[in-house]
Amino acid sequence: xxxxxxxxxxxxxxxxxxxxxxxxxxxxxxxxxxxxxxxxxxxxxxxxxxxxxxxxxxxxxxxxxxxxxxxxxxxxxxxxxxxxxxxxxxxxxxxxxxxxxxxxxxxxxxxxxxxxxxxxxxxxxxxxxxxxxxxxxxxxxxxxxxxxxxxxxxxxxxxxxxxxxxxxxxxxxxxxxxxxxxxxxxxxxxxxxxxxxxxxxxxxxxxxxxxxxxxxxxxxxxxxxxxxxxxxxxxxxxxxxxxxxxxxxxxxxxxxxxxxxxxxxxxxxxxxxxxxxxxxxxxxxxxxxxx
Length: 291
Description:
Helix content is about 35%, strand content about 20%. By secondary structure, the protein is of the alpha/beta class.
């Protein structure tokens, strides 16, 4: 299989622009505030990046589950992206929940408005509770039209299995999956391993030639709702600030780890990831994988 080189972030424009870096989140709204647009804005703010949004869907949910989902009309998604890019210099963008084929296609068409900035794509498909967040007909469109436009894609194990059409059982499978996804789409691929019940949380990243395992201790967290959104948003924020891809991934993983360690009680039986007071970058270990 032909290997394409990693798409490096276009940081020149962001570096030359005075003022605060700007990131754009194209994602769904979480009424419970733990994931989606709300989590993205928290991550942007933590890294001192100004957050802008294009909302793709409205959900009725809390940390216990999704009650209802209503997709925003695709033309309204396009209009939001157009309005933001007319006034802001976007340093990086991320996508989250896209819901259906029309929104996937609208976002794919709208990427030309982003001016070549780094694009992080979190292929949100199914919530931890089991709620479907991307319709089956949209998965093919996502793979064909959107993932190849990314700088980095961040599937979890279940999403990588859907894209690849096979089961991933162990860490060696994650290594192979990250490499195959990177080569297939010509992007950097980060396969998140948080759902594996291991003492360390190990994610695997590949640029199509090399692979890296990034690990942290498993945090004893009262809630893990919103980890995927938080990681992809933090990654976009770091790219907007000019970090190279591997270091941006490490900082994003440190942000999630630090947030999990600082969970807060927000209801009688409800907890949420907190806003960390500092970034525990030293908690992230990076190991290059050689064949």
